[in-house]
Amino acid sequence: MNQWKIFTKGFIRENPIFVIVLGMCPTLGVSSSAMNGLGMGLATTFVLVMSNTIISLLKNMIPDKVRIPAFIVVIATFVTIVDLVMAAYAPGLHAQLGIFIPLIVVNCIVLGRAEAFASRNDVLSSTIDGLGMGLGFAFALILLGSIREMLGSGAIFGHKFIPASADAILIFILAPGAFITLGYLIAFINKLSKPAKS
Amino acid sequence: MAKKESTLGNMISSLLIITLVASASLAAVYNLTKEPIAAAAKVKTENAIRQVIPPFDRLERLAVMPADGPDSLILYRGFKDDSLVGTAVQTYTNKGFSGHISIMVGFRADGVINDIAVLDHKETPGLGTKMTEPQFKDQFKNLNIAQLPEQKVKVKKDQGTIEAITAATISSRAFCDAVQRAYENQKKGAEK
Questions:
Q1: What is the DSSP string of A83-114?
Q2: ipTM entry
Q3: Helix, coil or strand: residue A161
Q4: What is the tens place of the pLDDT at every residue in A74-83?
Q5: What does pTM read for this prediction?
Q6: Contact B14 A91 (CB under 8 A)
Q7: DSSP codes, A56-70
Q8: What is the Cα B71 distance to its own chain's centre?
């Protein structure tokens, strides 16, 4: 598979959220605004790229029976690095994302790509796979976040377009709204990818 | 290169190497970020203090343990030209709808509330989060708790004077609880 194909599959054909349906916990929890989605998406992309690269580099040195603990240690290390760096240099965003940053460790997308791809492919392909999946995740989070923010807060990237004291459709920034929006988006994307009936 | 066999020796050594490198890198990053993290927390607190008490040129920090614990409150006494202009109390409550709420209450020198800044909370968006909005928070401006019945600030539902947030009574009560804690311990600090 050539590198461009590996990169783009993360965005559309195998988008981790809309197609593979992994990483639902942070997706539903963090997509209440476009900015949160962007921050989370970029943090996860960094972890995905770094862990895929390192795991691919080490794939022949990790005995099969201990591969899961080894992967988790690598992933957790990068997540902690992201957490510390964010707390130091982007404290506002860090406070907004809160507990979901440490939860990147158990984001199934990261462990899933390590197991399904990075442990079986060369370093360059693994890095690109991490980048594609990560940016696909970020794209999905921003899309979901924008819709929920527009409907639920009457704002986009923090800029309110309805009167300051007005309330939008609040349910969209709460948990049920996350499920509803995500469900409709998955249905819509499934409809788009179905081959046209002859 | 074939994959390493899963012998006990290989398993132990590979995990050992990975965890050693991981801990070393984490220690390095921790050291690098320690100061910016502490600085960011300090700036946040200072901004809150500046927001809630009148302008000052000197700050004195004092920790007070409330009677009902568990955490201590921090009093920041602001002085201008050596006279007390106000006391900012970093107070909290654990009775929020989603638990811990942390606020900074600013008292003027005469014990009247000047302003309040919300520091930290996990309340529900659109409901409890409205405690940060002027419509609720400004009710506490210029409030003299010493003149309230039983010297307690409460919501109207509890025979008090504060109009609670619609459909967020628990958050509103918790906010009053935090303010009450600040008031009672601010008096303590003033007696020192």
A1: HHHHHHH-HHHHHHHGGGTGGGGG-HHHHHHI
A2: 0.77
A3: coil
A4: 999 999 999 9
A5: 0.76
A6: no
A7: HHHTTTS-GGGHHHH
A8: 11
